[in-house]
Amino acid sequence: MPAYRSGSGDPARTLALLWREPGFGQSARGPKQGLSVDRVVDAAITLADTAGLDGLSMRSVARAVDVSTMALYTYVPGKAELVDLMLDAVYLRMERLPVDRQSWRSRLTAIAEQNRALFDMHPWIADVSTARPPLGPGLMAKYEYELSAFNGLGLDDVAIDDALTYLLTFVQAAARAAISTRASQLDSTMSDEQWWAANAPLLARVFDSTAYPTAARVGTAAGAAHGSAYHPDHAYQFGLARVLDGLAALIGGQQASAGR
Amino acid sequence: MPAYRSGSGDPARTLALLWREPGFGQSARGPKQGLSVDRVVDAAITLADTAGLDGLSMRSVARAVDVSTMALYTYVPGKAELVDLMLDAVYLRMERLPVDRQSWRSRLTAIAEQNRALFDMHPWIADVSTARPPLGPGLMAKYEYELSAFNGLGLDDVAIDDALTYLLTFVQAAARAAISTRASQLDSTMSDEQWWAANAPLLARVFDSTAYPTAARVGTAAGAAHGSAYHPDHAYQFGLARVLDGLAALIGGQQASAGR
DNA sequence: CAGTACTCTGTACGTCGTACAACGTAGACG
DNA sequence: CGTCTACGTTGTACGACGTACAGAGTACTG
């Protein structure tokens, strides 16, 4: 199915599931259900945390909760909706510390950090597109909380939404880069350093450094600075500083910090 | 295979392919090859442009170039390496207009626009992680060109690389959002507006707007501002302005533009 | 006590990437 | 000139995936 997109199922059914409305899995007639939506979703989250969304199969979820594969389809309409439920569930469980009293920079930094931690715990989230987000209690709580970090900055509501989207988009992009760096290491038995080391001599044979002088110079400098490999942590720190400086210009008043 | 990552094959073989080094598909003995790597790569790009990387199968490529599926494996070690070749090929074909003389803001805006156009023509690129990029002539030319936009800004080489990575990461993230928005529309027979319209009354039943006052207010305002739907163009414009303002703080001297 | 609405199961279909063995071809060598 | 051999190409096969469908069993409703 890949290209995981939330919000692809029937809205009514999906919303009812997200808010755990009764009325779909609890008729009087027939045998009682042996499981619950929550059990299924929890098992799926655990599996996805280690195997990713592609490694997560309906068969593996069924095995984890000890039913036949097709029994899952009485709890959840399909894999797409299951992913919606997983996403809203982890949103709901996010830590939401009070963010008042600090500077807006530290408030937004905290929001970014919390989201970064979420991607760290649940890397599969980075693969879910939320063009149509799961409109469940988790997303609502998360949205409400994160918006509150923008209080008192003199931004209008539309700008607040834009700014939050911008911040979260950055964190997701940084997380994706970090995750795929990690994934490359894991399934190639070659570290990034080894990979670059393996490529360097071969590349030297075909690569004419007079044809690409800037690339050769900058690439070498960047490679030396963080050990011949893309460094996700550094990219996140650099990027977050830029994001905050960019928002500072929007917010006004505050001075942008230079530095790296 | 999903979770497309470049640079996952044998470095020597992949590099030889990227630079089209002779020595792999041209021994004297036996029948001549009926195709070329380029023909295969071109066919694959054409298919991926309309069907995406998941819709691109070795079988469909083979059909397009009129050979059996397995014949492809004499040109290319597997799908992963094929994607590497596709990526480097489209990089190589990018337009590279001279960027001198203008302000750095318009130079970086041009880089961003060119990459945005690339994602628009080849949406599948947004699905490829480049933690280990295809070290071919296309990437080299692109990197060389894009670095040149940072000339004369007083940044050191490491900062230039960081800044470019930051800019490109933003464009990719914005492109992903735009692409998945488009994809949602395409395969659900429901426009974003219709989707939100379908959800709104149902959501009203379960959603307690006193529990999430800020979310209700801001969500309503944002929805009204761009028609109840996520608006990728607006997010890109807003984000790019922020990215440039953020880099302005790093570069110094120039004044950041406020405004939306 | 029959009827019925439900849960759960196993089988089956069409998709994918690619391993493998068989077949045919054309240059290299005696 | 004939034979050998390396290689291109082909078809078949395997195990994965999501899920449609038919059947079996269960427990409440009338």
Strand and helix layout:
Two copies of one chain form a homodimer.
Chain A: H1 11-18, H2 37-55, H3 58-65, H4 79-92, H5 104-121, H6 137-148, H7 157-186, H8 192-206, H9 213-225, H10 232-251
The structure holds a DNA duplex (30 and 30 nucleotides).
Quick recap of the structure?
Chain A is an all-alpha fold and 260 residues long. Chain A is 60% helix and 0% strand.
Shape of chain A: flat
Task: Provide the β-strand percentage band of chain A.
Answer: under 5%
What's the N-to-C terminus distance of chain A? Answer: 41 Å
Number of helices of chain A: 10
Task: Output the structural class of chain A.
Answer: mainly alpha
Oligomer type = homodimer
Largest interface: A-B, 86 and 86 residues
What is the mean pLDDT of chain A? Answer: 90
Q: How do the helices and strands follow one another from N- to C-terminus of chain A?
A: HHHHHHHHHH
User: In which range does the helix fraction of chain A lie?
Assistant: 55-70%
Largest sheet of chain A: none
Which residue ranges of chain A are poorly predicted, with pLDDT under 50 across at least 5 consecutive positions?
Answer: 254-260
Radius of gyration of chain A: 23 Å
Q: Count every beta strand of chain A, where a strand is a DSSP E run of 2 or more residues.
A: 0
